[in-house]
């Protein structure tokens, strides 16, 4: 299926690892031009160089950017305007989680988590909206977590912030229609760098990774018996952002291997 992405311009935050990295690669394979950002300048250069060799230097732009810093995001938007002059898709992918309970979450941690989950979307949407409004197939997609609907007490601040960010997506979908579509994916456990680090730090060093993942999936009651792969998420993101999803807005697609319990 031709998704209609050839020649389109995409901006993605948090594009140097995991889901972001897989999504950048998939957009490029579909013929899009992709600009992405991250906070590690060395990793950005390495990833951008690899993509440029595969797809051409004119198809890739990488910039260091802290998405919670308004000036950084505005500078990133200015760079896109100079580089492309147009924009069709914005994917807000930056984010992380805090493993704390209500009793152990400090005021500073609450503020940090709320600021990250909200302003990592607010600043890019504000900065890139003028370019998106010029597109004939504009789309914004937010990468969120199943915690938005199914909170966990050991991630109380992250769960609350995720729920608020999901509400923001729904509001933007209504306000920006019909010019810009706004959707989200909500994720269960996806294999990423953090799980690799936890595997390396496991107590039972005799356990291989496949067995460790299977045990983890069982403990989390994931019906598929495994974690999701970044590419599985990337495929959904690319479709929802493409012109093939032209009548989908305000939608939330769960990618969790069936682990959710909410209706």
Structure in words:
- The protein has 263 residues and is α/β, with parallel strands linked by helices.
- It has 2 domains: 209 residues, NAD(P)-binding Rossmann-like Domain (Rossmann fold), CATH 3.40.50; 36 residues, no CATH class.
- A 7-stranded parallel sheet has the order 3-2-1-4-5-6-7, with helices on both faces.
- Helix 4 links the parallel strand 4 and strand 5.
- Helix 4 runs parallel beside helix 5.
- The longest helix has 26 residues.
- The two termini are 31 Å apart.
- The model has no long low-confidence stretch (mean pLDDT 95).
Largest sheet: 7 strands, parallel
CATH second-level architecture of the largest domain: 3-Layer(aba) Sandwich
Structural class: alpha/beta
- CATH superfamily of the largest domain, please? NAD(P)-binding Rossmann-like Domain
Order of helices and strands: EHEHEHEHEHEHHHE
Multimer state: single chain
Number of domains: 2
In short:
With 263 residues, the chain is an alpha/beta fold. It has helices at 18-29, 41-55, 70-83, 107-132, 156-176, 193-200, 209-219, 230-241; strands at residues 9-13, 33-38, 60-64, 89-92, 138-145, 180-187, 252-255. 45% of the residues lie in helices and 15% in strands.
